[in-house]
């Protein structure tokens, strides 16, 4: 999308009402007020001592932009090309499961909010509405499907096929969640959203999954999901099989080591998402931003690199692009918009993020994201 700088008036119209939250911290605060403490805690928290959760934010502050001047930024083109398709913005909405925790309309409200700005939406395996219902709510808006591998792999292949049929355009295989991280907030609260039943839609709508159950009661369904969603034997051989099983581009989400990026390319993977799952899986790992340069070096532009974990504002997005990402995923920020004001909240969070990104690009001297000029970052 090419947009023209119209100054203050445009900014004010996007930010809209003065009472509405503006920063991520304000959205988080308003979401907290609306939600049950253990449900909010599940979304906010990270694993273990939350070292990685903190590091994800600190990593962005340690880099400073050294902007370029006099580049004519009267028009800023934020579009990118991924897998032969043009996207208006260099970001997508991260797959976040169990969105009914934030709002009754859950993923449906989020995908409609995303569609307002043509921002692609990644549907989670443990979404609160079925991948078919989310596709229908998306209309012509692009969507990708995130796959948690199942121990009974027939279920995974069935979900892949359903995603293809429902018009999903890429498959994101999450590789950092072969078992659940050590989540102390949830442990303390004795809380498991999967047991609460808010992430079962794709399973109960799956004929292969339902067929596999001997006990089809609610309790049997939850038990069946728990037996399938964690998949510790997952391995590179399966990745090659998944690649063969679909015509869609396949991305791996959760890569932090450059050697794994090399293995992914050897397996024919089409894209990599550098991520530590928003600090929710293994605590103590590197921030994804700090992992990015070494991965960008080995990937060397051969396949797209996407980054998530800790993106909160437009300046974060631009720093990730300068360090070698083609795009980023936005996680918790849109969920706090959803919890605060449903679809309208998602629209507002995204509108502000898009506008801050545009201002950041312009003031950095970047008129076209697809042709990044040489902008430096220095460590502070
Ligand atoms: C409540 C919650 C649920 C999530 N569910 C999933 C999921 O189902 N699948 C997945 O691959 N990642 C999941 N993630 C991780 C996100 O896709 C993303 O990696 C992370 O939120 C990015 O970090 P950020 O929240 O700091 O932006 C979840 C994250 C949160 C906060
Ligand atoms: O809560 C999460 O971060 C998440 O991704 C997840 C992992 C396993 C089961 C359900 C959700």
Provide a descriptive summary of the structure in words.
This protein is an alpha/beta fold and 380 residues long. It has a single domain (9-61, 84-364), classed as TIM Barrel. It has helices at residues 8-15, 24-34, 37-44, 51-61, 106-116, 131-138, 153-165, 184-189, 193-196, 201-204, 207-212, 218-229, 236-245, 258-266, 288-299, 314-322, 332-364; strands spanning 2-4, 63-66, 75-77, 80-82, 85-87, 91-93, 121-123, 143-147, 171-174, 250-255, 271-274, 305-307, 327-330, 376-379. The strands form 4 sheets. It has an 8-stranded parallel beta sheet with strand order 6-13-12-11-10-9-8-7. Strands 1-3 form a two-stranded antiparallel sheet. Helix 2 (24-34) packs antiparallel against helix 17 (332-364). The longest helix is centred in the C-terminal third of the chain and has 33 residues, at 332-364. The mean pLDDT is 96. The structure holds flavin mononucleotide (FMN) and benzoyl-formic acid. Flavin mononucleotide (FMN) is lined by residues 43, 56, 94-97, 124, 126, 146, 174, 253, 275, 277-278, 280, 308-311, 330-332. It is an enzyme of class 1 (oxidoreductase).
């Amino acid at each position: 999308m090419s947009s023209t700088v119209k100054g203050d008036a445009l900014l004010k119209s996007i930010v809209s009402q003065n009472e509405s939250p503006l920063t991520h911290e304000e959205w988080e605060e308003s979401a907290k007020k609306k939600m049950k403490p253990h449900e909010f805690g599940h979304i906010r928290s990270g694993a273990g001592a939350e070292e990685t959760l903190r590091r994800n934010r600190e990593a962005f502050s340690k880099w400073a932009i050294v902007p370029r001047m006099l580049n004519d930024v009267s028009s800023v083109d934020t579009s990118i090309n991924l897998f032969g398709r043009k996207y208006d913005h260099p970001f997508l909405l991260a797959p976040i499961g169990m969105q009914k925790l934030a709002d009754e309309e859950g993923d449906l409200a989020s995908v409609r909010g995303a569609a307002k700005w043509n921002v692609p939406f990644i549907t989670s395996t443990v979404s609160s509405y079925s991948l078919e219902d989310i596709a229908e709510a998306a209309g012509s808006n692009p969507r990708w499907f995130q796959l948690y591998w199942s121990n009974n792999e027939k279920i995974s292949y069935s979900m892949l096929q359903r995603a293809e049929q429902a018009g999903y355009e890429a498959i994101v295989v999450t590789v950092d969640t072969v078992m659940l991280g050590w989540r102390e907030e949830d442990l303390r609260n004795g809380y498991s959203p999967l047991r609460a039943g808010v992430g079962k839609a794709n399973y109960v709508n799956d004929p292969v999954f339902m067929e596999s159950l001997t006990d089809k009661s609610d309790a049997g369904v939850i038990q069946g999901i728990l037996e399938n969603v964690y998949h510790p034997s997952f391995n590179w051989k399966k990745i090659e099989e998944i690649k063969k099983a679909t015509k869609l581009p396949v991305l791996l989400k959760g890569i932090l080591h450059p050697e794994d990026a090399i293995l992914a390319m050897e397996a024919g993977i089409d894209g990599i998402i550098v991520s530590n799952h928003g600090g929710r899986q293994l605590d103590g790992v590197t921030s994804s931003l700090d992992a990015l340069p070494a991965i960008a070096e080995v990937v060397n532009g051969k396949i797209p690199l996407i980054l998530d974990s800790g993106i909160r504002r437009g300046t974060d997005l631009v720093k990730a692009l300068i360090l070698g990402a083609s795009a980023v995923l936005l996680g918790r920020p849109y969920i706090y918009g959803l919890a605060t004001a449903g679809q309208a909240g998602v629209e507002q969070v995204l509108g502000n993020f898009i506008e801050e990104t545009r201002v950041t690009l312009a003031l950095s001297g970047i008129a076209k994201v697809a042709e990044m000029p040489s902008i430096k970052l220095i460590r502070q």
